[in-house]
């Protein structure tokens, strides 16, 4: 399921897209925005994998947003949803996934999401880390990574076969991870989401994640709401 941000200056248009997304499936709507500045802030904080982006908005346009996103190391996929057909050439020069005209029909919306899902799958399959090990640099697919832990000026990267130690910060590395596949659960720990089998209340407001492949992992107090939201649990 892709994390999706809806950007449109008209509240009714946002409602329509949300309804289309619910009927089509495959999307988790993580937020909405009604102008370009709010969109860029939401992209930075919510880290969507797909943005449904209007073009004609007050101030900067959707074209401006897409152009700015090209400077990101891992920008979200963009599907333009607009009433204007004359921006199509500019849009595809920016390598957007699709260009959908309003009023949006369900079958056309579904085709756009299908294209986005294909590109998302390709990105996930190709995502790798190059990690030092025994005097060499090893190519490690993100699909092999189980957990990441901060250790002073280094990050310990855990896979099923071995553990790597790379210089850097957990926050910097977090920006390179697919947000739907990894979740920060503590200031010192990022866990692959498919390892989470449940939560356990330890006491005094403290919770552990039950890890299907290892020991329980402590949840940082400031991350508990984020973990609950990701798992779809009430606060």
UniProtKB/TrEMBL annotation:
Positions in coiled-coil regions: none
UniProt-listed Pfam families: LytTR, Response_reg
Domain Response regulatory: 3-117
Modification type 4-aspartylphosphate: residues: 54
Keyword set, alphabetical order: Phosphoprotein
Domain HTH LytTR-type intervals: 129-233
UniProt cross-references to PROSITE patterns, sorted A to Z: HTH_LYTTR, RESPONSE_REGULATORY
InterPro entries: CheY-like_superfamily (IPR011006), LytR-like (IPR046947), LytTR_DNA-bd_dom (IPR007492), Sig_transdc_resp-reg_receiver (IPR001789)
GO MF: DNA binding; phosphorelay response regulator activity
PANTHER family per UniProt: STAGE 0 SPORULATION PROTEIN A HOMOLOG (PTHR37299:SF1), TRANSCRIPTIONAL REGULATOR-RELATED (PTHR37299)
Protein name, as recorded: Response regulator transcription factor
């Amino acid at each position: 399921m892709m994390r999706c941000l809806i950007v449109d200056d008209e509240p009714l248009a946002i409602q329509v897209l949300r309804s289309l997304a619910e009927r089509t499936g495959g999307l988790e709507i993580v937020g909405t925005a009604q102008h370009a500045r709010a969109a860029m802030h939401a992209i930075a904080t919510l880290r969507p994998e797909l943005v449904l982006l209007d073009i004609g908005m007050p101030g900067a346009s959707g074209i401006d947003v897409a152009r700015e996103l090209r400077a990101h190391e891992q920008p979200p996929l963009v599907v333009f949803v607009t009433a204007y057909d004359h921006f199509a050439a500019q849009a595809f020069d920016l390598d957007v996934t699709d260009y959908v005209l309003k009023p949006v029909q369900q079958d056309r919306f579904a085709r756009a999401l299908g294209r986005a899902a294909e590109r998302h799958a390709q990105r996930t399959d190709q995502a790798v880390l190059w990690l030092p090990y025994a005097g060499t640099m090893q190519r490690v697919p993100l699909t092999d990574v189980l957990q990441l832990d901060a250790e002073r000026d280094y990050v310990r990267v855990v896979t099923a076969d071995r553990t790597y130690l790379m210089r850097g910060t957990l926050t910097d590395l977090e920006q390179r991870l697919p947000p739907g596949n990894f979740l920060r659960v503590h200031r010192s720990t990022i866990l692959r989401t498919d390892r989470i089998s449940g939560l356990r209340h330890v006491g005094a407001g403290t919770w552990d994640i039950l890890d299907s492949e290892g020991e329980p992992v402590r949840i940082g107090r400031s991350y508990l709401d984020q973990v609950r939201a990701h798992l779809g649990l009430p606060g």
